[in-house]
Structures are given as structure tokens and as C-alpha cells.
Amino acid sequence: MRKYYENLKKIEDFTSFDRSQLLDYIHRQKFEATAICNIGADFWVELDYIIALMKYSLTDINDAKKEFFIKSVIPLMQKKITIVKNIWKTLPENEFFYLRKDLKTFEDIFSHASNILNKSLNYFLPFPLFLHAVDSMTVLYPLLEKSCDARTIARYNYDILLTRYLVGDFSAQLVEIIDYLIWVQAVFHSALDTDKAGFRDQIIKRLSAFIDTESDFKNGTEYSAKSFVLELHEVLTDINIKSKIQELLSSILETEISVVECMRKITSIFIDPDISGQANVVRDLTIASDLASSVIKHIKESNNSALYEDIALAKALKLYFMQVSRYMFDVQIDMEICRIFEIMFYLEKTLPSFIMHDDIIPLLETSIEKFNSQKERLTENLNGTLDPEAAELFKAKMKQVYAGKI
């Protein structure tokens, strides 16, 4: 949330700025709007794609681009205009001023263009004015694959979310490839045929670049036998991953394979295809509920040493829960999970005095109630019996992993 508000301040102070510096704010606005309006994240991806086409057609305008705007962009805008209007009416202005402003800009461009075209007055279309309007957008300024958080787009897909989390320990470059594939999958059915071919070329280019990237060998005065063993393990792992990616690239070059199949081949490198995502989700709910209950208990007992342990556990779990667990639920439960970790962050910042806010316990109690209710619903549909020790074993494992990174 801190980055979110820092980004908001940049918008309020701006004269000109790079929208990629505002991704936390942009993604958070779309995430909250998704929850309020009960729409999928794919909507924002498709809307961003349409706005990107609009910007392309309006930049360095010529007769061909004018025709493209009229024949291709306007029909795509037509498909989204009703939803855009409904979202604009639903969102409160005091919380979504800039998003509502951009939605209104989209509506105004479409309405004005449609009115002129319906009167066969094409030559009156104010293309430079439309371009200026797009360039003035903030939350809806076209960012293509960065238009929406990739994990939000991949919500409910445990295999992809877990793979992306695990890949983070190996290669940021491969994470970017996965994010691109997630975006392509979301936008593909709305994309123009020419762009679909471009997506394939871009996937090939990115996979090739990853394969060709040389392993980074470390060196230094503190280089030891242990360092050598760890580095050798990393290099061998890297070689194995690149070998699998090379097989995928060869398949793409030899035949047409879907983005879904491409993603499946990548996930199979890192996780067991038979992994039970639903069982792990129930486990994560148990952990979140137990953590909140433990914090309440220790606050009431004024047991500061135990609160230290709760904070340490939260820090060990945070990355996994923020990158995987939260996206396996609807946005309401997602926000409850985020709330718990924000509370833990607040408690850590008040060390060693532990300044308590009156709302902490009621908020945690509400979260526990929602977690347990969700857990009951999921457990009813769970195939097989949940391991009662799964939560404790996972917490111990994550503590060990976290300790190895600090």
C-alpha cells in the first residue's frame, strides 16, 4: 500500500511521467475495480489492447491509419462501451478519480467518433484531439503486457502461479516470459490476426534470448568450497531448465502449439503435474487463520516474545502468500489475506513497544471468520483427506527457506 500511495502522489504532482513507474497504483486501481464491479481481469487486458491500437492508429496519422481506426478500432470499442459506462457509474469518484476520468475519456472518444461516422462526416474526425486524450490517460494509458498484474490475470490457476513463484529463484528473465504468456493468453481471442502472428514471433524471440543468456559465475575474496558447491548446483539447474526450454522452442518452430500448451510445458519443468492445488489452498487458509488467531491471543496476553515469533513466521510466509495463495481466491478473500500481512507489517514497524490499534483484533477476527467459512466450502469438494500436519510442515519448510535467504 505504501508504493500505491507514493504512485498516487506522483500522479498528483506530474507534469510528464513514465506510466511504467506507476504500475503499483495502476494495478491496485484495476484490482479494486475488479472486486467492486465483479468483472474479470481479462477485461482490463482487452481494454488496454484496444486503447493501444487506438494510440497506434492516431500516431503519425495517414490515410491507412485513418481507415484502420474506423474499420478496426471503432468496432472493438463498440464491444466494450457498455461495460465501460457501467464501471464508470459504479466506481466512487473519491477513490477512483483518475480511473473514472480515463473511462470517461474512452467513452467520449467513442461517442464523438460514432456520431460523426453515423453522419458520414469522416473528414471531421479530430484525430489529433483523440491522440491528445489518450496521451493524457493515467490508469488506462496503454501498457500492453504490463497493463494488469500477471498474477491477477492468472487467478485460480495454481500451476501457473506456483511455477511463477518458483521461477523467481532462478531467473527474472524467465518470469518475464511467463508473464508475457499469461498476457497473450488473456488478450489472444480479442487480438487482430496480424498481432497474433506477432505474439508468436515475440515468444520465439524471448525464449531464444533466455537460452542464449550465459550463466553468471560469481567470484570474490570470500569464495569458498561451499560457494563453489552452491554455484555448481545453480549452474546445473540452469542448464537443465534451458535444455527443457530448448525442447519447447523446437516444438514451437516445428508446429503450431497453443499458448496454453506452451505454458503447460513450462510448468511441467518446475512442478509435479499431479500436485493437488485445492489441498494446498485449504492448507494455506488454515495457516492464515492460525496466524491471525495466534496474533489475537498474544496481543490479549501482552506476550511480546510470542508476537516476535508471529512476525517472523509472517515474514517467512509473505512472499508465497502474496504471489500464490491470495490469487487462488476471489478478490474479497484476497484482500483479507493482504490485510493480515499489512497488520503484521504494522506490528513489526512498532517494535519493540508494539503499539496496538483498537481495530486490529476486530479486523483479524473478521478475517478468521471469512477464512474458516471459505475453508469449509473448499473442504467439502476436496478429493481425499487433508493431511492434518500439512500446515505445520509447510510453515517449518518456509521458515527454513527464509532463514537460508537472510
Characteristic terms for this protein:
406 residues; mainly alpha; 0% strand; globular
Account of the protein in words:
- The protein is mainly alpha-helical and 406 residues long.
- The protein is 73% helix and 0% strand.
- It is built from 17 helices and no strands.
- The protein has helices at residues 2-13, 23-37, 41-58, 63-90, 97-118, 127-135, 150-153, 158-167, 172-187, 193-212, 225-254, 259-270, 277-301, 304-323, 331-349, 360-380, 390-405.
- The radius of gyration is 24 Å and the shape is globular.
- It starts with a helix and ends with a helix.
- 28% of the residues are buried.
- The model has no long low-confidence stretch (mean pLDDT 88).
Please summarize the sheet with the most strands: none
Helix and strand composition category: mainly alpha
Helix percent band: over 70%
Poorly predicted sequence stretches spanning 5 or more consecutive residues:
none
